[in-house]
Amino acid sequence: LVKLENLPPQALLDLPPGAKGEAPRNVFRHGLQLVFEGSYLDTLKYLQELESLPRRLVWDEFILEAIAPPRNRVSVVLHTLSLKEEWIGI
Length: 90
Known about the structure:
5-stranded antiparallel beta sheet, elongated, 44% strand, mainly beta, 90 residues, single chain
């Protein structure tokens, strides 16, 4: 693991305030950037394990950089959705 960074939550809907000053319900995207190094097969195995997690993660970005064969540096931005702006642990 080279880097692990929580990204700020993003509101996905532009909603007006609710009735009687209630905050509008919104959907928030919670992102996480992961940068790691490993072989192609190790990377593939790790990504397959991410895909099999019981909580669904969506990939926004995936960059694979060949450093020195068989070593690669991988940057992946993952996100999940929530009705709460606070970070939800994964």
